[in-house]
Design a protein that fits this description.
homodimer, 8 strands, TIM Barrel, 2 domains
């Protein structure tokens, strides 16, 4: 597949940091930055932009905050071949925490929100655009919302200036048919806007669903190195680079950094396909109960875990 | 997805045995048999039917041979709720090794062959049908054959009495577009015959491609518990059972046996997504070089491994 409009955003550090509270060494983040630059990836999402009023640096690594000092420490001295992005969650950042683009190394701020927060997200996105950033809205957890509410949210976005909207499978619950259905819905509701896709791998469908998104016309693709990401992880960048035939992409620096760093990292901080995440995925639930099961010293009885979650018996 | 015609064949022991030369304990195989029976799976492929003239029992476990004594030892005394299948490879079994159906616990013999062996496969399939077995032909490695040769093979099969033909992605190299293309080709060339699909997980697409096969109209689906199978493994049965809405299927016995046996088994004899298998998959190559890389005490330089395989520099 070669479509020149396609752009890849790698969110290894941002989504991967959800596993270890962004406790990455500078060396790790810098090596990811260099490998991504060499591979031709268009954007590196290096973390969240969050307010230190709401989160402490003692509990969270630098990439929960993405201060300019943190960013300079990593990319200072290197030629910047890719753009840098940070994600902002509604309610976890205030307007005054976002500097003018001219004072920042960041190029893009992506606003993550639930359907019910869409007006706040549009407002924050407009603010970021005024400051000079490229901006997107990523609507989370749409596999659990009433279609009417989603349609209303899309209608609100269609009237906004926000140019890029992401289809997000937060729970790894979607099959190809849901991807095609939602991609068509988003395109129909959002004329003139660009779409992106962000998937999770609970059912081993993150890469497959990203391909289906591409077939449906989506041009902004999220991926992470070796699939690193919360719970079952994300669409593996190495697979996506190999699928895309765009001459600007090179898989080899990614193979290299997987061998140098990620195989070992995965042995230490676990992500990927595991039955607890599969169960939350097939039941279209937030992965938090799966993460709790995986973090326990001994796995709970998984048949019971499935039955409780299916029957909505509280498991915490 | 609920389509009453859909039938699942579990080939955990047959394909999984390619990893460990079928060195499974009787207890393991019996537990798989019981769990599959409880889950509503239609067929269990318990191994290969091979000749002891060509393979020794000192190097291969019982399920390389599937003698009637071996089979009785496992399923004797249980109510047989599912059908038993064995696979036969061309050139590794002779006609006289196949008993009358009336003298066998097996219900089905699936003939695996390459395109160039199609006439031998049809002949052996006809022989098995005369003996009283359900019979299929599984054409391997079709991602590497000239389309003209595949068309000829399908034409030969269309003239045969063999009722079921499998689309096989031996190298885990196909994307959804290849699945749809080939499924259409097979259906067009084989009027009146049923299709099956067997996938490998080198690119994390085994389950996704099985779904696309279903969407394309394929009704015979191969899967293995926890994806166990040679190299990157196969379509995970637990995911497939969850996708299918047929009331006869129950995922819970499979979740149970995964926890009891397969999580530990996977830690001992490795299968699943690993970069060497990904590389053979994206390059559309036999997984043997990936298996060699994985079996080494230390992984080879993977960037070099990729470049050598891509440039067809011999790596053995």
């Amino acid at each position: 597949m070669f479509r020149p409009q396609i752009k890849i955003l790698d969110c290894t550090v941002r989504d991967g940091g959800l596993i270890n509270q962004w406790q990455f060494s500078d060396d790790f983040v810098r090596k990811v930055f260099i490998a991504l630059s060499q591979s031709g990836v268009d954007y590196m999402e290096i973390g969240y932009k969050s307010s230190e009023k709401y989160f402490s640096r003692s509990e969270n690594g630098a990439w929960k905050f993405c201060s300019e000092d943190d960013l300079k420490r990593i990319v200072g001295g290197f030629e910047k071949k890719l753009k840098l992005s940070a994600m902002a969650d509604i309610g976890r950042i205030d307007h005054e925490d976002i500097p003018q683009k001219s004072a920042s190394i960041l190029d893009m701020i992506r606003i993550a929100c639930y359907v019910k927060e869409i007006d706040k997200a549009i407002s924050l996105a407009h603010y970021c655009m005024e400051k000079g950033y490229e901006t997107t809205i990523n609507i989370m957890a749409v596999s659990k919302v009433l279609e009417k509410d989603l349609d209303e949210a899309l209608d609100d976005i269609s009237k906004s200036d926000v140019p890029i909207i992401y289809l997000v499978d937060s729970f790894g619950a979607m099959y190809s048919e849901q991807i095609h259905f939602l991609a068509k819905k988003y395109f129909d509701a959002l004329p003139g806007k660009e779409l992106g896709i962000h998937t999770h791998n609970n059912q081993q469908l993150a890469f497959a669903n990203t391909i289906e998104g591409i077939i449906a016309g989506i041009n902004r693709l999220d991926a992470t190195i070796y699939g690193m990401g919360r719970g079952a992880g994300n669409c593996p960048l190495e697979l996506l680079l190999s699928f895309l035939k765009n001459p600007k992409f090179d898989i080899r620096p990614i193979i290299e950094i997987i061998q140098e760093i990620f195989i070992l990292t995965k042995a230490k901080i676990e992500w990927g396909y595991h039955i607890p995440y599969m169960i939350t995925g097939i039941l279209n639930e937030h992965p938090r109960s799966g993460m709790k099961a995986m973090a326990a010293k001994k796995l709970p009885n998984l048949r019971q875990f499935y039955e409780n979650l299916r029957d909505e018996i509280p498991i915490d």
